[in-house]
C-alpha cells in the first residue's frame, strides 16, 4: 500500500488589502463579508475542508482580532481537532523569523521552523482573498502525476492580467515563463495564488533565497521565479469561476455576478461554503417593500426598495429608501429619502441625508462614518 502523504495547507491571511480603502481600515481583508452571510476566509477554508485535508495553518498579521472570533477554533469546517486541525500562526519575537513579514514569501520563511517540524511531503499555500471552488486533491494529483516540485493553479482571466502573475506553459503544462504583474502581459493565463510545493524543496528554497537575497518579499518576486528556473514547475488549470476580490471594483463585480447567476455558486450541496453564520432572526421584509434579485442576510429589515443588491446582517432599509446594485455590510442604516447606486457601504454606516449617493458607471465606497471614501474610485467595467 502506498504510504499516505503528509500534506500541510497554509492559508495566508495577514495582508492589509489597502486597495479596498476604508473597507480594510478596521479589518483584515479575509474577514470581509461575501454574499451577506459569509466571510472571504470561508472560501479557502471550505475548499480545504471539502477536499478532506485537516492540517490547516492560517498565517496572520494585520488586525488578526477581526478574524479570530469568526474562526471559532475551526469548528465550522470540522477543524477543531486534538490532532491536526486549525492552527493560527501569529508574528512572534525571541527566535529565528521574529518580527513582521514583508510579503508572502517572507511569511513562509518566518514560520519555516514550524513547517519543517511538521515534516510535510507537500505544502499547499493558498491566499485568502479570492472567490472560487477548487478540489485541492486534484491539484495534488496533477503535482504527483508530473513529478513536479511546484504546481501552480492557473486560470484565464477577463480582467487585466498585469494585476497578477502571468504564466506561459508548453503543450504538456510545464511552466516555461512566469512574470509577476508585468507591464506588458504575454498571455491572459494567470496564477490564482494556490501553490502546491514539494515540502523539502520549499524549505531548501526558503533558506537559499533568504541567504542569497538578504530577505524575502512576495513569492511572485522571488520564490515562484526560482522554482520556475530551477525545478520542474507545472500548472493545474482551474476551469471554473475565479475572481480576485482585492479592489472595490472586483468585489462589486463578484457580487453582481453572484446575483445574476454567472458568478460563484455558494449553494452547491456537493461543495458547500461552510461558515460561522450570524445567529440572528431571518430577514424581515415589510408590507410595501420592493425586493428583486437580491440577497438578504439574517437580521436585516427592509421596508424600502432593494434591487440587485446584497444586504448584510442587521441592515435597515427604511420605507422610502432605495438601494440599487449595492453591497451593504453589517448594521448599515439607510433612511427614508436616501438612494444608493453602486455603493459598497461599511459596517454601521448611517445614511440619513436625503438624496442620491453613487453613480451609474462607478463604484462608490462609503465608510462607517457614512462618508464617501475619496481614496478609492473606479469604473466597474474596468476590472
Explain what this protein looks like in three dimensions.
Residues 10-260 form the Nucleotidyl transferase domain. GO terms for molecular function: glucose-1-phosphate adenylyltransferase activity. It comes from Miniimonas arenae. This is Glucose-1-phosphate adenylyltransferase. It holds the Pfam family NTP_transferase. By secondary structure, the protein is α/β, with parallel strands linked by helices. It folds into two domains: 7-260, Spore Coat Polysaccharide Biosynthesis Protein SpsA, Chain A (Alpha-Beta Complex), CATH 3.90.550.10; 284-382, Hexapeptide repeat proteins (UDP N-Acetylglucosamine Acyltransferase, domain 1), CATH 2.160.10. The protein is 21% helix and 27% strand. The chain is built from eight helices and 28 strands. The chain has helices spanning 40-50, 65-71, 104-110, 112-118, 136-146, 199-213, 223-230, 248-260, and strands at residues 7-12, 33-34, 38-39, 55-59, 85-89, 122-127, 130-132, 150-156, 165-169, 175-180, 189-198, 233-237, 242-244, 284-285, 290-292, 295-296, 301-302, 305-307, 310-311, 316-317, 322-324, 327-328, 333-334, 338-341, 343-345, 350-351, 355-357, 364-366. Strands 5-4-1-6-11-8-12 form a seven-stranded mixed sheet. A five-stranded parallel sheet has the order 14-17-20-23-26, with no helix packed on it. A hairpin with a 3-residue loop joins β2 and β3. The protein is globular.
Amino acid at each position: 500500500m502506498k504510504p499516505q502523504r503528509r500534506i500541510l495547507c497554509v492559508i495566508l491571511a495577514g495582508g492589509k488589502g489597502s486597495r479596498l480603502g476604508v473597507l480594510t481600515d478596521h479589518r483584515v481583508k479575509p474577514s470581509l463579508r461575501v454574499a451577506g452571510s459569509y466571510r472571504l476566509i470561508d472560501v479557502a477554508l471550505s475548499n480545504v475542508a471539502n477536499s478532506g485535508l485537516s492540517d490547516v495553518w492560517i498565517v496572520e498579521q494585520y488586525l488578526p482580532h477581526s478574524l479570530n472570533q469568526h474562526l471559532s477554533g475551526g469548528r465550522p469546517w470540522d477543524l477543531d481537532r486534538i490532532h491536526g486541525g486549525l492552527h493560527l500562526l501569529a508574528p512572534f519575537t525571541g527566535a529565528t523569523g521574529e518580527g513582521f513579514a514583508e510579503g508572502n514569501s517572507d511569511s513562509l520563511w518566518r514560520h519555516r521552523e514550524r513547517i519543517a517540524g511538521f515534516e510535510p511531503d507537500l505544502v499547499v499555500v493558498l491566499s485568502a482573498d479570492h472567490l472560487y471552488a477548487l478540489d485541492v486533491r486534484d491539484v495534488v494529483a496533477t503535482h504527483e502525476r508530473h513529478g513536479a516540485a511546484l504546481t501552480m493553479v492557473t486560470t484565464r482571466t477577463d480582467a487585466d492580467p498585469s494585476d497578477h502573475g502571468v504564466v506561459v506553459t508548453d503543450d504538456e503544462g510545464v511552466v516555461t515563463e512566469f512574470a509577476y504583474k508585468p507591464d506588458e502581459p504575454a498571455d491572459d493565463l494567470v496564477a490564482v495564488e494556490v501553490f502546491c510545493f514539494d515540502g523539502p524543496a520549499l524549505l531548501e528554497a526558503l533558506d537559499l533565497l533568504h541567504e542569497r537575497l538578504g530577505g524575502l518579499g512576495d513569492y511572485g518576486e522571488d520564490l515562484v521565479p526560482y522554482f520556475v528556473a530551477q525545478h520542474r514547475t507545472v500548472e493545474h488549470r482551474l476551469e471554473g469561476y475565479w475572481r480576485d476580490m482585492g479592489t472595490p471594483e472586483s468585489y462589486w463585480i463578484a457580487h453582481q455576478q453572484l446575483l445574476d447567476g454567472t458568478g460563484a455558486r455558494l449553494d452547491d450541496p456537493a461543495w458547500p461554503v461552510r461558515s460561522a453564520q450570524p445567529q440572528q432572526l431571518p430577514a424581515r421584509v415589510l408590507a410595501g417593500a420592493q425586493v428583486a434579485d437580491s440577497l438578504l442576510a439574517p437580521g436585516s429589515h427592509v421596508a424600502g426598495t432593494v434591487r440587485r443588491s446584497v444586504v448584510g446582517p442587521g441592515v435597515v432599509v427604511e420605507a422610502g429608501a432605495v438601494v440599487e446594485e449595492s453591497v451593504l455590510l453589517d448594521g448599515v442604516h439607510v433612511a427614508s429619502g436616501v438612494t444608493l447606486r453602486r455603493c459598497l457601504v461599511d459596517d454601521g454606516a448611517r445614511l440619513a441625508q436625503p438624496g442620491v449617493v453613487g453613480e451609474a458607471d462607478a463604484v462608490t465606497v462609503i465608510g462607517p462614518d457614512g462618508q464617501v471614501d475619496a481614496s478609492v474610485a473606479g469604473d466597474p467595467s474596468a476590472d
